[in-house]
Design a protein that fits this description.
transmembrane; TonB-dep_rcpt-like; globular; transmembrane beta strand; single chain; 22-stranded antiparallel β-barrel; TonB-dependent receptor
């Protein structure tokens, strides 16, 4: 969806988690390589159960059974302001999501929880840099989710019930060689809380409807014979929230015409058909066809609106051919037809992540509606050669073309893996990558149709070593260069007529270290430590700044201990450098609204907020209820109730004119919050 929609939604509804957590507090007392993630592959042969590495993520404290939420305990991953992951110095917009071989619309609800039930996951992989040619349209990281195959068993059901989100999971066989499952979940805040419970008048947001989200996943698999299988799947998700924005909200203080009712309504649905053929010689062919339908609407200020809809039809194929014991080829193609419509009746904000404050870069109001179509094509070839028993060389390339910007790319990628000993592996990867630009930067009505697609170069070098009793460690360094990033031009710029130009470059580098312990002696866990640096350079001004998500130090300690055969306790401790922010050094008159003021900023992203510190704890108890298997889980988020500052803004309660001294106010993330979940299987 357009970045303007994403920015607006965050500005309007960012206080939701804070409001909810304060309410709870008051009432309760709140296939390639990524060695950093893979912790065990001993169960990957059974596609009807979850792999051990993904199960670890599910059981991680603070994730509340959501493995994708647990990715923030992995090296090099931080939250962005929109609650999506930023990996190794790249933007969240640079990521790509794949589910069961097919492209996915989004995998996170609007407020950070993933759309997947833990019952349907088989495997989850995060490729944070140097991924292979089978992945396209990504310059940051790839999140590859594999949903497990349905079990051919008598019909069964599991019911989850918690204050935050509840659902039902049904699974069973249909014939001797076919089975299905269905997962449906819905947030239940509207049953426990009223709009007034969530509202925070001091922060300027009064909810008129309790936020809701839903998601569903359906999968049917027919194992036709020993060589062929057919999968039919459907999935979808939705988010909505309504609130009134008052003059106390920062967005309204800087843009008074945004005062009034605000509404967010977002949904997607997808359907896929996938046929797989496996030959006796190791040959494997997969053919998929999928439909995606995205819709989002944002309304604010009693007068402004932004609507986006996209329909995508994707055909994707992959062929793996082993030519000998030491050499194999893999071919793949993906064709996507995308029809999208965009309607905007609002103020135009021309800005990017390089700008310290997007809300204060107002441009002319726009009222238009447009319908467009684009075709994206990618093809790849990868060769895997093992010249010796301990050495593997992957050399491949991807060709990509889209007719909207009329650009084509030939992107080489290479990976080398050397087993120095039975327990020690060295690896090196390099590749070139690109992605389609953010749509509002290339629309003629809002951007520059001649803008080029962002590109990146990735380089990694790593070592991994395994020891007895499930111990291992990995160390990987990375270096990324980012090119053709967009720069926004406001009305006072000589390039204002273009709105955006490709005049930003970037650089990100660092090292990730991880010590891992597989499940032995009743416990498992890991400790990770990351050092990284991410910068962006304005080629016009010849100015280099820290990226706003630059986080030099990230540390995570995760542990889970089974102190009884049916009881587990675990924790996740996360600490990291404070986020970069732009200091406010003065106050100026608001040029658009008489009698209002705006902050005067110092050097962009030149200072840091206090460091981040959060301890989450989880207790689980496997028991019975009504003669059925049951489980009780208690999660305590931010047990230390540490005040993690996420933003620092001008305090409009104290600053109303240019004669007032500068005063700032901090916004904090989630505070102490308990959550209880109870589930029963029938």
């Amino acid at each position: 969806m357009p970045r303007l929609a994403a920015r607006t939604k965050f500005s309007i509804f960012a206080t939701l988690p804070l409001a909810f957590c304060s309410t709870v507090n008051a009432e309760s007392s709140d296939k390639n390589m990524e060695e950093m993630l893979v912790v065990s592959t001993s169960r990957e042969g059974d596609y009807t159960i979850i792999t051990q590495n993904t199960e670890k993520l599910i059981d991680t404290a603070g994730a509340m059974g959501d493995p994708l939420s647990a990715i923030y305990a992995l090296p090099g991953v931080v939250y962005s302001q929109g609650q999506e992951p930023a990996v190794r110095g790249s933007s969240p917009s640079d990521n790509q999501f794949t589910v069961d071989f097919m492209p996915a619309s989004y995998i996170f609800h609007e407020f950070g929880v993933s759309i997947f039930s833990e019952f349907i996951l088989h495997d989850f992989q995060m490729y944070s840099a140097g991924f292979g040619p089978e992945y396209s349209n990504a310059t940051g990281a790839v999140f590859d989710i594999t949903l497990r195959e349905p079990k051919n068993q008598p019909l069964s059901a599991t019911i989850d019930f918690s204050m935050l989100r509840s659902g039902v999971f049904i699974e069973g066989g249909i014939t001797d060689n076919s089975a299905f499952y269905l997962s449906y979940r819905k947030s239940l805040l509207d049953l426990f809380l009223k709009e007034d419970d969530l509202s925070d008048e001091d922060d300027g947001i009064v909810f008129t409807d309790v936020p809701r989200d839903t998601d569903y996943q359906f999968k049917y698999q027919w194992n036709i014979n020993n060589h062929n299988s057919l999968i039919v799947s459907a999935n979808g998700a939705g988010d909505d929230a309504e609130a009134k924005l008052t003059e106390k909200m920062y967005l309204v203080a800087t843009n008074p015409d945004f005062y009034g009712n605000a509404k967010l309504d977002e949904s997607y649905s997808g359907q896929n058909v996938i046929w797989t053929h496996r030959g006796d010689s190791g040959l494997e062919f997969t053919l998929g066809y999928g439909l995606l339908d995205d819709e989002s609407g944002t309304y604010w200020g009693n007068q402004y609106s932004e609507l986006y809809q996209a329909e995508q039809a994707t055909t994707k194929a992959r062929l793996y051919v082993p030519l000998s014991d030491s050499f194999a080829l893999e071919f793949g193609s993906q064709l996507a037809d995308i029809d999208f419509s965009y309607t905007l009746d609002s103020i135009l904000f021309v800005c990017t992540e390089f700008d310290p404050s997007c809300d204060e870069t107002r441009s002319e109001p726009l009222n238009f509606s447009t319908n467009n179509q684009r075709k994206e094509t990618s093809h790849y070839l990868n060769s895997s050669w093992s010249p010796g028993a301990n050495l593997r060389l992957d050399i491949g390339a991807q060709y990509q073309y889209n007719d909207y910007t009329d650009e084509d790319f030939l992107l080489p990628r290479v990976a080398v893996t050397w087993d120095v000993t039975e327990s020690t592996t060295l690896s090196a990867k390099a590749g070139q990558y690109n992605r389609f630009p953010d749509i509002d930067t290339v629309l003629p009505e809002t951007g520059n149709p001649d803008l080029k697609s962002p590109t990146a170069d990735h380089y990694t070098l790593g070592i991994e070593q395994h020891f007895d009793d499930g111990w291992s460690y990995s160390l990987e360094g990375y270096y990324k260069t980012l090119h053709e990033l967009p720069k926004g031009h406001t009305d006072d710029s000589p390039y204002a007529a273009l709105r955006y130009t490709n005049d930003i470059e970037g650089e990100a580098y660092g090292v990730d270290f991880m010590i891992n312990k597989d499940l032995t002696d009743k416990w498992w866990g890991w400790f990770s430590l990351s050092y990284g640096k991410s910068e962006r350079t304005d080629l016009i001004e010849n100015e280099t700044r820290e990226y706003y998500l630059d986080t030099p130090i990230i540390a995570n300690w995760v542990l889970n201990y089974q102190f009884r055969h049916n009881m587990n306790i675990g924790w996740r401790w996360s600490a990291r450098s404070g986020q970069a922010y732009t200091p406010i050094v003065g106050v100026q008159d608001n040029p658009w609204f008489e009698g209002h003021v705006l902050p005067v900023y110092g050097d962009a992203f030149s200072e840091r907020l206090p460091h981040y510190n959060r301890l989450d704890v989880r207790f689980s108890w496997q028991t019975t209820a009504f003669g059925k298997d049951a489980e009780l889980m208690i999660d305590i988020i931010n047990l230390l109730d540490y005040n993690n500052i996420s933003e620092r803004n001008l305090d409009y309660k104290k600053v109303t004119s240019t004669n007032d001294e500068v005063a700032t106010v901090d916004e904090a993330e989630i505070g102490l919050m308990p959550a209880v979940t109870f589930r029963v299987s029938f």
